[in-house]
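Researcher: Let's run the pair from yesterday's discussion. Sequence first, then tokens, for each.
Model: Starting with the first of the pair.
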Amino acid sequence: MAAETQYTANTGMVKISTANTSLTGSGTVGTDIYNVITGASNGTLIKTVSIKATTKGASSTTQGMVRLFIYDGSNTRLLMEVEIPAQGQGSTSSSFETTVELNYKLKSGCILRATTQTGDDFNVIAEGLDFAYYATSVRPESTNYTANTGVGYMNASNNALDGSGTVGTDIFTIVTAGASGSGWKGLCIDSIAIKAVGTVTQGMVRIFIQNTGTGTSNTFLLKEIDVTDNIPSGTSKSFSHKIVFPDKFQLQAGYKILATTQNAENFAVIADAMDWKYPA
């Protein structure tokens, strides 16, 4: 993109669950083929697509496919297939997840759609950037960044994969992207650090994205982190894990990162992030 390009984060999220074996994109939108993200007026750059299984149990996913399609207003065309292995999920084992580096420029009005071969439950999350142009030249360094360090603390058990729970009690807000009404274009996340505060046993920490609504229909599981048994001491560090987004993760303005812990153990969760806007 040219130096004068301006970006606005566009995080597309959908839950898919009904089997659809078609390779032609046939089906009923919202029933067995699902809209993920729509191209904005100048187009949308889809950087990545994350696929995360959300069914609990020994047979969380069966071997199959998640398929991504492009709908141009008239025709639906298969873009790619993502192989899904048979993989269980439990309190000490994470469900299937993968992130596809797409870097696909979606035309205005076109829609990225998704299906699941087997009818297993998945979240499909598109990391998108809408692009527009400033009337005069804008140097990249003229972008206005403001640090937004998210700091959360978790201490209550929550084994849900759908984001259910009570905020502040068993699901915790880590960081909130600046509001678009204040001119913010999105939140640029470099990393999310997870640090145990005391002894921990084998379990899971989960990271969610929540849009501007509330409840399970607005909350999407993004990542699961396996926690291993650990007893810290004066000479032994407590458990830690850092999620690093090599090309940064741009979260839509007003959206939130939430977190839960499988076991009722203590964790600090810190997001290294910055909101951005452009000068008038």
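Model: Moving on to the second of the pair.
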Amino acid sequence: MSFIKITVGGMTCEHCKSAVEKALGELAGISSVKVDLAAKQAVIEYDEQVVKPAAIKQAVEDLGYDVTGI
């Protein structure tokens, strides 16, 4: 398992946090997602053999947020 920390720009509320957690949690190969709304960051534990960082970034960007750190 690998970990990645990303910065998610545009999150403003608990709904935003939940949407990011849900979208990432639905990706195959993701075992845990912890989103810190105040810090606008997410820490994701994932299986690098199943999902790549680019797919993680795309899943969050598809929600309309900006992603940095990948």
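Researcher: Give me one sentence on the second I can quote.
Model: Residues 20 and 60 are 6 Å apart (CA to CA).
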